[in-house]
Amino acid sequence: MDSSFVKPLLLWYNKNARVLPWRGCGDPYRIWVSEIMLQQTRVEAVRGYYERFVAALPNVQALAECPEDELLKLWEGLGYYSRARNLQKAAKVICAEHGGELPRTAEELRKLPGIGAYTSGAIASIAFGEAEPAVDGNVLRVYARLSMFSEDIQKDAVRKRVREELLSAYPEADGTWGLLNQAFMDLGSGICRANVPPECDKCPLSGICKAHLAGSETAFPVRGAKTKHRDEERTVFLIRDGENVAVSRRPAGGLLGNLYEFPNCEGWMDADGAVAYIEEKGFLVLTVRELPEAKHVFSHLTWRMRAYELKIAPREERGEALQSAQESSMAELQKAPFEQAWIFAEPKEISRKYALPSAFAKYAELLEIRRGKE
Ligand code: SF4
User: Fold this and answer.
1) With a 6 A CB cut-off, is 90 part of the ligand 1 pocket?
2) 195 Cα–ligand 1 center, Å
3) Count of domains for the chain
4) Cα 41 to Cα 363: distance, rounded to the nearest angstrom
5) Among this protein's residues, is 35 annotated catalytic?
6) Is 91 helix (H, G, I), strand (E, B) or coil?
7) CA of 137 to the centre of ligand 1 (A)
8) Is 146 close to ligand 1, i.e. is its CB under 6 Å away?
């Protein structure tokens, strides 16, 4: 590959760049936050979260000092919560070891939690002008089509080679890579898109694009076999004690670690089974109502959820036997890895304090619990 893509791409970007709240700000912290949010999330979904996040946590220090529950609440709805935790871990390292300023090179940035090859390249090139291609899915797709690159772009070694080839095609350390990376992002998300035919008639690179000239745009990029996606059936319990609703904190680590959820378990239950399950925990169920089903798709897994609203007797009406059953059951719950202690709180308090992931959005809505930007 030679440097013939540089000029037309920059000219096109100059006229067609998307206006985004983090663009042109020159603030490495904001560029970093936006790049982390944009991992696995669309630009349009990120906008509102980004504004709210940087208003609440305007610099590295504020992020480093933010209580975890508040941080997760700010991230609520964006998904992939390990990104938020890694942001904070990195902010603490930046405060402790770099005087509160982000390192200026991709190599140094990569040593921070949650910052990989792509993000380090994006920050170093956009904020600090380093000659560093930021190779994400957009760049890989455009590159593969431009050069009819036939290797599996899912392999790390292949991604590294693409970075090296782009850099050797345009090695100038004149600040241009910051613009080129953003131009690739815009071209890849607006014109040379994934899963739909590219709009080559609008593309500034159509004259040099080998796949287009050969009429085989959609044959690239080449991808190996995907990992298997599996379905999981779950039953969700909206347990109401008067005005209060039960939530519990998921264990640290693993899927949705440390976030809050409505109590739930693997497998589908009918209404009788749901009542029996909750009464086994020591609660007296007064009424049960079946709710609409919901599903949530994670990258590797789909939850198919059945749900029940269960009204339970107020504590004073449960009787001593039930209370003691509940207390010993609660002690068990404290020990159990996937059924943490339940917290009963009003929907308003849950809206304010507890981060509920999107997987439970449908049921949160039924209870008028507000999540994230809602
Ligand atoms: S010409 Fe078509 S296939 Fe080639 S980079 Fe442009 S949009 Fe993509």
Assistant:
1) no
2) 13
3) 2
4) 22
5) yes
6) helix
7) 14
8) yes
pTM: 0.71
Taking residues 225-239, what's their average pLDDT? 89
Split at pLDDT 50, 70, 90, the class of 335 is very low
Mean pLDDT of 19-46: 93
Ligand 1 atom 8: the closest Cα is on which residue? 192
Last residue in a domain, options 189, 219, 249: 219
pLDDT in tens, 238-262: 999 999 999 999 988 788 988 999 9
Q: What's the pLDDT score for residue 236? A: 97
Catalytic residue among 35, 217, 261, 339, which? Answer: 35
181 and 242 within one domain: no
* Per-residue pLDDT at 40: 78
Looking at the fold, whether 184 and 293 belong to one and the same domain comes out as no
User: Does 212 contact ligand 1 (Cβ within 6 A)?
Assistant: yes
Q: Are 146 and 211 within 8 A, CB to CB?
A: yes
What was the pLDDT predicted at 341?
82
**Average pLDDT over every residue of 282-311:** 93
Helices (H), the chain: 6-16, 28-38, 43-56, 60-65, 68-75, 82-97, 106-109, 117-128, 137-147, 156-169, 176-190, 210-213, 271-280, 319-335, 347-353, 361-366
Residue 184 alpha carbon to ligand 1 centre in Å: 11
- What pLDDT digit, counting tens, does each position of 280-291 carry? 888 899 999 999
Tell me the CA–centroid distance for residue 209 and ligand 1, in Å: 6
- Report the alpha-carbon distance of residue 302 to residue 212 in Å, rounded: 36
Q: Are residues 164 and 299 in the same domain?
A: no
Do residues 170 and 250 share a domain? no
Residues 57 and 165 in one domain: yes
The CATH number of whichever domain residue 335 belongs to comes to 3.90.79.10
Q: Atom 2 in ligand 1: which residue has the minimum CA distance?
A: 200
Q: What is the average per-residue pLDDT within 73-95?
A: 93
Residue minimizing CA distance to atom 1 of ligand 1: 206
Dig out the tokens for 321 from the structure: 């036997």
Of the candidates 219, 251, 267, which is a domain's last residue?
A: 219
Tell me which amino acid residue 36 is.
I
